[in-house]
Design goal:
This protein is an alpha+beta fold. The protein folds into two domains: about 10-235, no CATH class; about 300-455, Heat Shock Protein 90. Helices cover about 60% and strands about 10% of the residues. The protein contains twelve helices and seven strands. The strands form two sheets. A five-stranded mixed beta sheet has the order 1-2-3-7-6. Strands 4-5 form a two-stranded antiparallel ribbon. The longest helix has about 80 residues, at about 205-280.
Length: about 450
C-alpha cells in the first residue's frame, strides 16, 4: 500500500469521482430530496473526494484499477442514498447505475478520439499509469472536456429527463439491475485491460474497435433500462385509464337508473300537483311555477342514444348550477356502434374539461360549451368546443394538463384517445381564435353506412 502522488492513476481517482458525481446529479436531481439538500449534496461531494484521495494505490493492473473504480462508485451510491435522497435503494441505484454507464461512455468516447487522431501516438490516455502522462497537453484537455460535455448533454436529452419527479423506479425488473451491473463490470474491466494492453502494444485499430464495442454496450444497456421504465409508465397509465373506465361505467349505470326513476316520479308529480292545486284552489301561477321547476328534471334531450341522453341531462344540470350554457345539436343514433359506457366516458371527459375551464371565465356570454354530432360522408363527426383564450402546450398531439399534480390529472385526454382508437377513430385538438376544439372522426360501420347516408 502506498501513496504515489506522482502517478496518473492517483490523481485520476479525483477526476473520475468528479465525472461520476456530475453524471449522478443529471439522473438523480428529480428524486425526492432530504431537508437542506444543497448542504447535504456539497458535504457528500466533499466526502467522496476525500475518500477518493485517501484510497491508496496497491498495484497498477487491470484488476485493481477496476476494483478501485467500483468501490468509489458504490461509495457514492451509498452516500447519496443515506445523506441526500429520501428514496428507496433501488430508485437511487437505478440513477447511479445509469450515471456510471454515461460516465464510462464519455470516457470511451474521449479515448476513441485520442486514439484515432493519434494525439497520444495511437494509445489511450495514460490515466491508469504509474507515471504522469507528458503528452496530456492543452488540446487533450480540451478534447476531454468537450467529449464529456457532449456525451452528458446527449444522454440527458435521451435518458435523464425521462425520470419524473416522485416516480417509482422499483418496478424495474431485478434482472435488468443485474444486467446493468454485469455490463458495467465487464465494460470497466475490459476497458482496464484495453488501456494496460495499449501501453505496451500500439495497435490503434484494435484499441479503437474495442472502445466502440464498450461504448455500444453501455448505450445498449441504457436503452434497455429506460425502455423498461417507459414500458412500466405505459402500463401504469393504462391501468389508471382502465380504472377510470370502470368507475365511469359504474357511474353511468347508477346515474341512468337514478335519472329514469326521477323522470318517472317527476312526470307523476306534475299531474299530482295540478290535481292537488285545483282541489285546494291554488293560484294557477303558483301551480305553473312548481311544475316548471320539476320540468327541469323531466325534459331530457332525446338524441337517439340512451347514454348520450343521460350524459347531457347530467351535464346540463351541472351547467345550470354553474351559470354555463350547454348547446347541443346531436344525432345520437350515429354513435350506436359504440358501447354506452364508452359514449359516456368519451364525451363526459370532454364536457368535464370544458365546464372546469369555463368556471373561471367571468364574461357570461363566453360561458358556453357546444356539442355537435353529425354524419359527414362515410364518417361520424363529433365536435366539442368552448371558449379558451390560453395558449396550451401539447405533447403527442394532446394538450398537457395545467394541474400541478400530474399523477392524478392528465389522463382524461389519454382516455379519450384510447376510446377513439378502440373504434378505429381519430382525435384532434386545436385552439384557434380563442376557441378550444375537440374533434373525433369515426368510420361508420358498413352495416350502418347506407342507413346513415340516407338519413344525412
Amino acid at each position: 500500500m502506498y501513496y504515489d502522488t506522482g502517478s496518473a492513476l492517483f490523481w485520476y481517482k479525483l477526476i473520475f469521482m468528479c465525472e461520476l458525481f456530475i453524471a449522478e446529479f443529471i439522473f438523480s436531481f428529480r428524486l425526492n430530496k432530504k431537508r437542506k439538500y444543497p448542504l447535504r449534496l456539497c458535504f457528500t461531494a466533499l466526502l467522496c473526494f476525500a475518500v477518493a484521495l485517501a484510497v491508496p494505490i496497491f498495484d497498477y493492473n487491470a484488476l485493481f484499477s477496476s476494483l478501485l473504480f467500483f468501490v468509489l462508485f458504490f461509495l457514492s451510491t451509498v452516500l447519496l442514498k443515506t445523506l441526500c435522497y429520501d428514496e428507496s435503494w433501488l430508485n437511487v441505484f437505478f440513477c447511479t447505475t445509469a450515471a456510471y454507464l454515461v460516465q464510462h461512455t464519455a470516457f470511451e468516447t474521449y479515448n476513441f478520439i485520442v486514439i484515432v487522431t493519434g494525439l497520444n501516438n495511437g494509445l489511450p490516455v495514460e490515466v491508469y499509469g504509474d507515471k504522469m502522462n507528458q503528452t496530456y497537453d492543452a488540446l487533450v484537455n480540451f478534447l476531454h472536456f468537450e467529449s464529456y460535455l457532449l456525451v452528458y448533454w446527449l444522454c440527458f436529452l435521451a435518458f435523464g429527463r425521462k425520470i419524473k419527479k416522485n416516480e417509482d423506479l422499483r418496478q424495474i425488473s431485478g434482472r435488468m439491475v443485474f444486467l446493468s451491473i454485469t455490463t458495467v463490470l465487464i465494460a470497466v474491466v475490459l476497458n482496464a485491460l484495453v488501456i494496460y494492453y495499449g501501453y505496451s502494444h500500439a495497435d490503434a485499430f484494435y484499441l479503437s474497435m474495442l472502445c466502440l464495442l464498450i461504448m455500444g454496450s453501455c448505450i445498449f444497456v441504457l436503452c434497455m433500462q429506460f425502455n423498461l421504465l417507459a414500458k412500466k409508465n405505459m402500463q401504469e397509465e393504462l391501468s389508471v385509464v382502465k380504472n377510470m373506465w370502470a368507475q365511469e361505467e359504474k357511474q353511468y349505470f347508477m346515474l341512468k337508473e337514478n335519472i329514469d326513476y326521477i323522470n318517472i316520479k317527476c312526470h307523476d308529480f306534475k299531474h299530482q300537483i295540478r290535481k292537488i292545486g285545483r282541489n285546494c284552489s291554488l293560484d294557477e301561477a303558483a301551480i305553473s311555477s312548481m311544475t316548471q321547476m320539476i320540468s327541469i328534471y323531466d325534459s331530457a334531450l332525446k338524441t337517439g342514444n340512451a347514454a348520450l341522453d343521460v350524459l347531457l341531462m347530467e351535464k346540463n344540470l351541472t351547467c345550470l348550477n354553474k351559470g354555463i350554457r350547454l348547446t347541443c345539436i346531436a344525432d345520437g343514433a350515429l354513435l350506436s356502434f359504440m358501447e354506452d359506457a364508452d359514449v359516456y366516458s368519451l364525451l363526459g371527459n370532454g364536457l368535464d374539461n370544458a365546464i372546469e375551464f369555463l368556471e373561471s371565465v367571468e364574461e357570461e356570454e363566453k360561458r358556453v360549451v357546444g356539442l355537435i354530432i353529425k354524419a359527414t360522408g362515410g364518417f361520424v363527426s363529433v365536435h366539442l368546443y368552448n371558449y379558451c383564450p390560453r395558449a396550451l402546450k401539447f405533447k403527442d398531439g394532446l394538450p398537457i394538463t395545467t394541474h400541478k399534480n400530474t399523477i392524478v390529472h392528465g389522463f382524461g385526454m389519454k382516455s379519450m384517445r384510447m376510446i377513439a382508437e378502440k373504434y378505429g377513430g381519430t382525435i384532434s385538438v386545436t385552439v384557434e381564435n380563442e376557441m378550444f376544439n375537440l374533434d373525433f372522426l369515426f368510420g361508420i360501420p358498413r352495416a350502418k353506412t347506407k342507413e346513415i347516408q340516407e338519413k344525412a
